[in-house]
Amino acid sequence: MSRWNEENELDNVFQSMNKKFDLSKEEKSAIQTEVNRKIVNRPPQRINRSTTKYYLSLSAAVILFSLLAIPTILTWFMESSPQLTANEMLAVIKEELELGMTEEEVTTLLGTNYQEVVAAMDDSRVWRYDVETAEGYQNTAVDDFVDMEGLMQGDIKMQLFITWGENGKVRTFSSIYQNKTDGNIYNFRVYSDNTREDVQIYPLPETENDQETNDDIEKTMIFEIENLDQQSIASFLATNSIEMAEWAPDEGKVAFAYPHSDENTIESQMYIWLVGEREPRVIEDVTGYRITDFYWSPNSQYVFVSAGTSAIHEGLIVSTESFTIYAILAYMSMHWSPDSSKIALGIMNDSVQPVVDTELSGSVDLAVYHLAEKLLEFIEVASEEYYFSVENWEEMERLTYRKIYFDYLLEGETLEINPIN
Description:
alpha+beta; 20 strands; about 25% helix; globular; 6-stranded antiparallel β-sheet
């Protein structure tokens, strides 16, 4: 109320001033003194500290919520955003993914749902995208090996491997995928020179001649016996001149290859015959190969099928549980570990060129393949002067191998190593 009266008094002073046009010096001084007195004595406005504290607390709460909630919201958004299907990913790979792209460009295009692994051949840095996987699917491999078993069983529809160059840009990329139209597995690959190919890799495409050959086999080959013991099966194979046969250590099964009826081909079909069964199991994955040998694991659960030429082999690991290919490896020499969990291998290294001309495309490293993890671990790296060849693996802690020089005038060495360490 006091404040209201003071303001009215001040207004009266100015109204009185407005009525006078000819003020004396004393009147002007009196008016000025009165105005100054009213201004100086005017009570200060109080600041509402409760309101200030409220807004400060509210601002702090908003900032704290943002710091805590935004990362969670972003993570939820990224995880809940729809993943590309194999067909959608394939279209993006073929139309938009290019050599020379940076990591930022690739993640912008394909996302960050990848695993960083290493190239088995040269230890290059590789990104692996597992696309359209089944619930619970896990892939713990740390190298760039393809999960053929997962692809064949439908647990995963595509694997994309992007290899990075030393300049931090895309050097090559390869997509192995299951075609939803025919169910077969294809490989779309772009090489470092930008050469592109999209080929069927499983099962091998059948030509017209192959179909005629298979028809001939079905007509001429009848595997069926009355007695189901080992001796009867062995006798049947010998009677039919099947020489490419190898019994498992448990003598409960035999792997063999039956050549196609076409005399002009050296390709064959693989079978596994279990004692107690009237006819053999056809290994449909292994057909059209030039099979040269079978190497059974000591526990008789796997058979390593050697196929190819005298110098360069393709190793097909076949499981006796699923009767399908478990893994495919390009190799020069091999030996099973005593516990059947690993395979010592001489692996081709195309990045190293020998000092002399050979039929090999490169040198040969020493490696160990771990079946459970599907992991290829390199033990010794070859050079342009020498390569490695597996000799024996009688004890888990002692692997014997040879260091062989390309210059035949230099004597090689027999070495031992503990591959478990």
